[in-house]
């Protein structure tokens, strides 16, 4: 058979131009191979045929065999529906259709025997089945196990009668036309070592499993292959980049670093901080450009690690900069770092959008002459007018807030790309980090500095509001501050803003003796900045806000966070919000407010939050429950690939094995030039030809 990747789907019998156009637009299926790689999302056992008189309320789906006795239509226009009586000799059941009525009556004739499949529902004391699948007895796809795959389709496709059954028939037609085995897509040594099913058998069994065992082996083969090529792509570009891109060699540890460490630093570093600094030092002294992701929970001391790494750059005669996502966060970084580096005699400056022209000119000049050693700023650092004498080290804080192109612009601030350290307080599960950030080396700070008290997290129901306000008042009376956070979700933006504003007025009535400020993402930047500043300065004691505060405010005096409608937030986002308190030495509290009417999954999610402060455990749980695409903070970073069958939340072990195998292959043939690896090279190009070379971007 011709190469399946080059055959247009419209030429497959039963497809044609109109259906092909829908498949192109709705599912991105353009070729025969695309269709083979469009896998079922679930399987239902159709091995048993029931009798109508056996039906009871506990059956999710049933298969019957019988005849349509008669049709009746009811209602007019949009309310029109079609009912049919279906009999198998043991009894009669009603079938109902709310659309496609003419298609049904033209296609399925009374008196003809059909196999019926559907979900029985009890209505007015009788069972009926809405929109059942009907097949003439001799027209059933031969599948001895009775395991039937179901395919995701869209509303537009269903309206054109291109449903799961229609896709199954197309796949059946395609596979029936394949007489010889398809070319292998993995090297034979890997297939043999991993005892994998052949590519042809895996594709046949994923669509039409011979047994459950065959289905599991097919799933393993296809998941492994998908993750193997993804990891190979990432590792290959990382290695090529390391070969091509030399970096500054910072092998000198001088006075700035040593004086800071021995004389200025007021406390001992944690073991985790020491380990990470060692990893960064090794990278900076290797002669290759560093691209490292630093993960650590809020308050774990990432900024201190970043500063000490920047001092190594200064010791070697280079400048360093730190870019933060908001003006407030940049200012806080600047003020904190300025106190630390001033005893060393270093010049540190702040550059944000609101820095006046008069103040900006000497900063730009100082960068060009090299007099400024450290620059802290926001997106303003990316402007073309900002140029350095010798930029050697870049720190990007809250990395998921910056687009890839923005980060790449910092690369271009020097002829040789500077070393890059990207930091995030959103803990990323290992499987996701290996994939989304697969081209970055990962360091983790998994300890909090001594003296930090773990935040107490409590789950509270609406009816305990009076006690909650009494506890909050006690905290305010001893001089503390508090956040009250409301959800602001796009789909319900108007009602959410209304709730926020009503909440703000309510809190002002309950606590008339304290100033309350309000912040949300729909406010103008200057207005938002003013309100935030009131809270940072301590003028306002309570801040009512949306999630805009999850990144960008550091107020050690804030010891209480109340999160309204906590059930509407993801775990990772709740954890990120909680990190706004617990920044001082005092005991801090995070209260998750919810109504009694929450389902079991939501209850479980909120209980995980109350049980642990471990961001990595929370991130793993969030990914298990919600899937990788929904995780707060990873959506913005843009997962640059579509997984057809593997699941990063559930297939961590397969991912690790696939990465190991990809690494072994590259160890033996880095450029994939050997004859036996040509199939790998060809398959790699086919899979990633449409995608950007994101492995070369930090």
TrEMBL record:
Record-linked Gene3D superfamilies: Nucleic acid-binding proteins, P-loop containing nucleotide triphosphate hydrolases
EC number(s) from the headed UniProt entry: 5.6.2.4
GO molecular function: 3'-5' DNA helicase activity; ATP binding; ATP hydrolysis activity; DNA binding
Pfam (any one): RecG_wedge
UniProt key word GTP-binding: no
Record-annotated Helicase C-terminal domain positions: 464-629
GO biological process: DNA recombination; DNA repair
Top-level taxonomic group: Bacteria
InterPro entries: ATP-dep_DNA_helicase_RecG, DEAD/DEAH_box_helicase_dom, Helicase_ATP-bd, Helicase_C-like, NA-bd_OB-fold, P-loop_NTPase, RecG/Mfd, RecG_dom3_C
Family label: Belongs to the helicase family. RecG subfamily.
Function: Plays a critical role in recombination and DNA repair. Helps process Holliday junction intermediates to mature products by catalyzing branch migration. Has replication fork regression activity, unwinds stalled or blocked replication forks to make a HJ that can be resolved. Has a DNA unwinding activity characteristic of a DNA helicase with 3'-5' polarity.
Protein name listed in UniProt: ATP-dependent DNA helicase RecG
Organism expressing this protein natively: Barnesiella intestinihominis YIT 11860
């Amino acid at each position: 058979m011709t190469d399946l990747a080059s055959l247009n789907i419209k030429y497959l019998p039963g497809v044609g131009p109109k259906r092909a156009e829908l498949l192109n637009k709705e599912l991105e299926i353009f070729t025969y191979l695309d269709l083979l790689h469009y896998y079922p999302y679930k399987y239902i056992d159709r091995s048993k045929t029931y009798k109508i008189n056996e039906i009871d309320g506990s059956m999710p789906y049933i298969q019957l065999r019988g005849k349509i006795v008669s049709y009746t239509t009811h209602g007019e226009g949009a309310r029109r529906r079609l009912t049919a009586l279906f009999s198998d000799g043991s009894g009669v059941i009603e079938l109902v259709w709310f659309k496609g009525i003419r298609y049904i009556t033209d296609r399925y004739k009374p008196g003809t025997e059909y196999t019926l499949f559907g979900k029985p529902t009890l209505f007015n004391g009788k069972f009926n089945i809405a929109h059942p699948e009907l097949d003439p007895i001799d027209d059933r796809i031969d599948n001895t196990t009775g395991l039937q795959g179901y395919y995701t389709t869209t509303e537009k496709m269903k309206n054109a009668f291109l449903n799961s059954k229609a896709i199954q028939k197309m796949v059946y037609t395609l596979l029936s036309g394949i007489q010889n085995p398809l070319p292998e897509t993995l090297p034979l040594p890997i297939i043999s070592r991993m005892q994998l099913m052949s590519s042809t058998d895996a594709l046949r069994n994923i669509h039409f499993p011979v047994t459950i065992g065959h289905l599991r082996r097919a799933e393993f083969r296809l998941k492994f292959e998908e993750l193997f090529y993804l990891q190979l792509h990432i590792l290959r570009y990382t290695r090529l980049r390391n070969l091509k891109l030399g970096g500054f060699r910072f092998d000198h540890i001088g006075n700035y670093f040593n004086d800071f460490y021995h004389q200025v630093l007021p406390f001992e570093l944690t073991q985790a901080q020491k380990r990470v600094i060692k990893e960064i030092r090794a990278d900076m002294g290797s002669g290759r450009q560093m691209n490292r992701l630093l993960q650590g929970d809020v308050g774990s001391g990432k900024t201190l690690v970043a500063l000490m790494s920047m001092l190594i750059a200064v010791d070697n005669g280079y400048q360093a900069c730190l870019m933060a996502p908001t003006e407030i966060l940049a200012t806080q970084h600047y003020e904190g770092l300025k106190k630390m580096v001033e005893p060393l005699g270093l010049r540190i400056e702040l550059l944000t959008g609101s820095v006046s022209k008069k103040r900006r000119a000497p900063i730009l000049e100082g960068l060009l002459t090299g007099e400024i050693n450290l620059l802290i700023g926001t997106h303003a650092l990316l402007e073309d007018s900002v140029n350095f004498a010798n930029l050697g080290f870049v720190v990007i804080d809250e990395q998921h807030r910056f687009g890839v192109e923005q980060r790449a612009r910092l690369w271009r601030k020097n002829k040789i790309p500077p070393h890059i350290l990207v930091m995030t307080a959103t803990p990323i599960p290992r499987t996701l980090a290996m994939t989304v950030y697969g081209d970055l080396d990962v360091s983790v700070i998994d300890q909090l500095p001594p003296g930090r008290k773990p935040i107490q997290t409590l789950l509270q129901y609406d009816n305990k509001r009076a006690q909650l306000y009494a506890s909050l008042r006690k905290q305010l009376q001893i001089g503390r501050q508090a956040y009250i956070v409301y959800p602001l979700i796009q789909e319900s933006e108007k009602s959410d803003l209304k709730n926020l504003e009503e909440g703000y007025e309510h809190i002002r009535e309950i606590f008339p003796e304290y100033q309350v400020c309000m912040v949300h993402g729909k406010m103008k930047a200057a207005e938002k900045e003013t309100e935030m500043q009131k809270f940072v300065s301590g003028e306002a004691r309570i801040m009512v806000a949306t999630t805009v505060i999850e990144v960008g405010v550091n107020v050690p005096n804030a010891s209480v966070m109340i999160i309204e409608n906590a059930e509407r937030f993801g775990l990772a986002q709740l954890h990120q919000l909680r990190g706004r308190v617990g920044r001082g030495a005092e005991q801090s509290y995070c209260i998750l407010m919810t109504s009694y009417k929450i389902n079991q999954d939501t209850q479980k999610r909120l209980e995980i939050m109350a049980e642990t402060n471990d961001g990595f455990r929370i991130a793993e749980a969030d990914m298990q429950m919600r899937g990788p695409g929904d995780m707060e903070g990873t959506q913005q970073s843009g997962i640059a690939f579509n997984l057809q069958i593997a699941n990063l939340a559930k297939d961590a072990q397969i991912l690790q094995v696939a990465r190991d195998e990809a690494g072994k292959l590259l160890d033996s043939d880095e450029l994939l030039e050997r004859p036996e690896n040509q199939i790998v090279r060809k398959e790699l190009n086919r899979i990633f030809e449409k995608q950007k070379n994101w492995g070369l971007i930090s």
